[in-house]
Amino acid sequence: MDDPLPPPSFQPAPVKIIHNLETLRVLSDPLRMRILSLLDDRPRTVKEIAKILNLPATRLYYHFNLLEKHDLIRVVRTRVVSGIIEKHYQVTAREFNVDRRLLSPGADTSAEGWRLVLEQTVAALQQDLTALAANGTLQSFIAAQDQDGEPAVPLRLSRALARFTPGQARAFLQRLVNLLRDFENQPHDDEAEAQAYTLVVAFYPTPHSDETPPEDPPIPEE
Length: 222
What we know:
α1 (21-28) packs parallel to α5. The protein has seven helices and four strands, in the order βααααβββααα. By secondary structure, the protein is α+β, with helices and mostly antiparallel strands. The N and C termini lie far apart (54 Å).
């Protein structure tokens, strides 16, 4: 008879700081990023993740071992199934942030650190939007807007260019930071209807600002 599944006693930390490039390299791999996202809500086995990703479990063991080695995931419970120990993994933190010293000007790690952070951000965005296109969410949103109805899913993609004085830029950025804090701490009354949303923001001095900015992606506003 298989052992019953014990409840997990481990709770992920709110934030974990990445202090070295080796761990940042492990974290930045697109497949490992997807594994981490799937282990965020509840513990899962390698076989469960393999089934979700439609990949052979043998392809994932290497990635799980790396993530565990760098304390990005850990085994939170085990049980015996048909004489084999079944391991359930979960993330060690809900959010992973990078130590600013890795990205500081003049640091030996700065150039590669910034490259890894940017690649990670772009890869995560591409994965999410590709998944939304595959399941029809983006198409449904556009169709709803074409009919002048309410969108099935609130969604916005755009790129804008504006001119600020240094003082205006600092003031706008502070407003944006306050909005991000509201987003991260947004309460919801009905847990059953709550849907996770992702907000990606970049605010930076535009290189070659005299050039004509590119048009927004062909996704209509809400």
